Amino acid sequence: MGTLKQVRRRWTILGVFVASVFIVWIFVTWPQPKAVEADPATFYRVTPVVQPTVWGEDPVEFYVHETMSEMSLEQKIRSLLIINQPGIDATSLQGFVESQQLGGFILMGSNIPATPEELSGITAAIQGNPEIPRLIGIDEEGGEVTRLPYDTYAGADVLRNEPLEATAQAFTSRAQLLKSVGINLNFGVVADVSGDSSSFIYGRSFGSDGLSAGDRVQAAVTAENPYVLSTLKHFPGHGSAPGDSHVGIPSSPLDYESWKQSDGIPFAMGIAAGNPLVMFGHLSFPAIDSVPSSLSQRWHQILREDMGFDGVIITDDMTMLESSGIPEYSDPAANAVEALRAGNDLLLYVPSVNFDVGAIVSAVTNAVNAGTVSAEQLDESVARVLSLRRELYPEAMTWIPPCDERCLIWVTY
């Protein structure tokens, strides 16, 4: 039999042997999962979890960051241009915006066909990728400035003397009309204050004092926003600057404090209502800055810092600067550089037939490479504009970013 120690040793060896056999048996006989290639139906994909990134988890921000990472400098610059081309041929207009890689298009009278159905065909062709549609804008104020023959709703010339409810109703109906024909951006809320019936802006102004005009501006913005992107114009305000900025640069005598208590009020009220864009006028306020407001870093600082506006800033038609006849503003390329340097995000053009988009892009490209226009500032503008466009996509906030193997989990039955 052997000693007790020898017996224990034999039983230990036997136990290890039996346990090993049992483990091998389990391994051999236990059902194994099928390979993915053999039967994909036995697998399911767990909903991807987007991992936190340096640019945050907001789906719009994620999409814009990824889009910008694939854009060249020239493409970024072109995305900041909204330009008109005459005509109602949808194919021709589509070719224009796509070949120029524009961020948007402004419809003028020459682009408006006889019926809403025809206009819908044009806007659908211009829109491009529905996941980041181009901005399709129009000056549809109503009253004195009406591009659409089928817009029968009141404008400021009537609404300034009507109750606030009338402004809300008119701009709700107008915005619904614009949306129905594929327009997503309206340059339609005039925030200029004017009590001078001889002024060219009087019939487009909601009131002769800051508060009465501001109330209606706020009502118009609130009414438009659910349907189209609403724009306040013409910052800092035409009312105190006699003259027509289409043929000159009107000058205002107001200093900053006086402006805040008068012309600035409707803009402040519109911003409080949540308008997403502000359009800069080509106006002069010598007591505040010596250069036109659209090219003024000081005025852009006032809008951003003093008034807290964090939306998109767009210029009025840039060709108006050349039309002023002032030699300093005769070069469209130089004006474009100065406009972006001042702080505008979008440059608007209703040009002549010989307009050279490439010259504008080349001048800005050179300015960025030379450091005259900050590359960081340019990227901030591009991000603001692309975010605005992305938010027009109905599924922008529910979209799940593309995911690689790091955030996928595969499980078998």
Textual characterization of the structure:
The chain is α/β, with parallel strands linked by helices and 413 residues long. The protein is built from 15 helices and ten strands. The protein has helices at 4-29, 59-69, 73-78, 90-100, 116-127, 156-159, 164-180, 210-224, 256-260, 264-272, 297-306, 319-323, 332-342, 357-370, 375-390, and strands at residues 43-45, 81-83, 104-107, 135-138, 185-190, 229-235, 277-280, 312-315, 347-349, 410-412. The protein has a six-stranded parallel beta sheet. β5 (185-190), α8 (210-224) and β6 form a beta-alpha-beta unit. It is globular. Mean pLDDT is 88; it is low at 1-5, 33-55 and 408-413.
Summarize it.
By secondary structure, this protein is an alpha/beta fold.
Notable characteristics:
two-stranded antiparallel sheet, TIM Barrel, 10 strands, 413 residues, 2 domains, 42% helix, alpha/beta, 10% strand, 15 helices
